[in-house]
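Researcher: Next sequence.
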Amino acid sequence: MRFERFTHNAPRAAGVAAILLVLAAAGCSTAAESPAPAEPEATATMPPAAKPEKADAPSTQAGEAKEKKWTPPRFTARQDERDRMVKTIRAYGCTDKAVLAAMAAVPRHEFVPASVASLAYWDRPLPTAHGQTISQPYMVAEMTRLLRLKAGAKVLEIGTGSGYQAAVLTHFTAHVYTIEIIKSLAETAAKRLKRLGYDVVKVRHGDGHFGWAEEAPFDAIIGTAVAGKVPPALIEQLKVGGRMVIPIGPTHGVQRLMLVEKDAPGLVRQRSIMLVRFVPMLRKDPTEK
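Model: Next structure:
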């Protein structure tokens, strides 16, 4: 999961503002930012998707999708902290009952390093491994809400990270596919998801810019790292009538969280939702020599 900063149109009580401060160790600004104003919907024709010279075969999986009805695992440890976290998310204005229930159910403390586990339910991003972070709970909730997932929807996530966002998505559908460019993160996330009982999630090591063509089309796509523009392959793999939520903008500085809706093949609408800050969507595993 990647890092982002934002503010929301909610009362800015000092206590709430305090928990939005980013860990100094992550090297992130604590300056307040305002949501981006809504922009007129733009229609654009996207070019054909570029194909990689050699497609990455799925190397890591967290289990095969079950034929029977999927029931997410249940956890009781630190439930009171999750409930307080959900109250904070609700205070920002997110009132979607299904989203709030999912956030209250997934044990975030299982997806963060032991060194910051005590902060797991604060509404802030936290550092994980290889310079990556687990997203702020409110951002996870809001991006999930924007997808408008229906039961049985097929979802693609770009940027597995710790696996937290993927686990949240399983509370809406058993058909969750996620891609991570850093191989060790993909492998660790797959093992973690399986250990915790989220074994319907399929994890793949590869370049998210190319999506997952073998499993396309997808009802929804969620990007947890910033790209300079919406990758053409993701537009191609989004089902007509589908929704994509992805940050777009420069690698450094303020970006925009975009809602992308596909009306017809090659025809999309894009709308700015808010200002955010994410780490870049990498093209190469930085840990590989």
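Model: The first strand starts at residue 42 and ends at 45. Confidence is low (pLDDT under 50) at residues 1-60, 62-66.
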